[in-house]
Amino acid sequence: MDPISNCRQTIATEPTTAVYPGTFDPITNGHLDIVERALQLFDRVIIAVAVNVGKQPLFPLDERIDLIKQCFGPGDDRVSVDATDGLIVDYAEQQGACAIVRGLRAVSDFDYEFQLALMNRKLARRVDTVFLMTGFRWIYISSSIIKDAARHHGDISGLVPDHVRQALQKKYHADNKKSGRRPGV
Ligand code: COA
Fold first, then answer.
1. 164 domain-assigned
2. How far is CA 77 from each of CA 30, 80, 113, 157, 160, rounded to the nearest angstrom?
3. Whose Cα sits closest to atom 3 in ligand 1?
């Protein structure tokens, strides 16, 4: 079946699922904005926390997942959080998802996102990439910039959920005092 008929059939007969992949080190209000927007289009959104992305995350995988789960109440059964290691299109297919959601903040995101989407399409034609524009308020934030501000005692309230702000404070300032070690960004 060609991708368009497949999508039409999926939309007509089954609940639609999208996978929202990323490192989420840590999750920010910008990411949550994308999840909210995706929920307007899809019945279910799986936030897929990537294990191997060639980054050295500040938060280990289980903490990143836990911080995301705390953003959603028990009633939010349209959102689930999972870890994924491997090709994101394989994961999407395993989950029966018809789309991969990616957020676009600025033109600078576009080159990389376009390349990633084309590669993903080459790997799995049945899974489409859907780009959602991040709300204007979040256009300048990234996990790294938030971590940098937190590390230097900058005020990040309003940019991440409060439990994430506290986790960053603990990571950079409480843990730091105990060990004398300086965690990386
Ligand atoms: N609000 C705030 N920040 C946002 C954002 C938003 N809406 N959207 C993206 N960002 C930030 C992230 O916080 C992240 O910041 P950081 O670089 O400072 O950590 C940055 O933009 C890039 O984010 P992310 O969307 O998490 O992408 P990533 O590069 O970390 O992850 C994967 C990319 C995991 C999706 C991709 O590598 C992947 O799919 N890997 C699996 C293997 C695979 O299938 N590869 C593709 C085919 S070969």
1. no
2. 21, 7, 28, 27, 22
3. 142
Q: Is residue 50 part of a domain?
A: yes
Ligand 1 atom 31 nearest Cα: 22
Task: Measure 145 CA to ligand 1 centroid, in angstroms.
Answer: 14
CA distance 2 to 16: 17
Residues identified as active-site: 31, 55, 105, 143
- Residue 73: is it exposed, middle or buried by C-beta count within 10 angstroms (0-12/13-18/19+)? exposed
pLDDT digits (tens, 9 = 90+) for 108-166: 788 999 999 999 999 999 999 999 999 999 999 999 999 999 999 999 999 999 999 99
Q: Range of 41's domain?
A: 3-140
Q: From CA 20, how far away is CA 164, in angstroms rounded?
A: 19
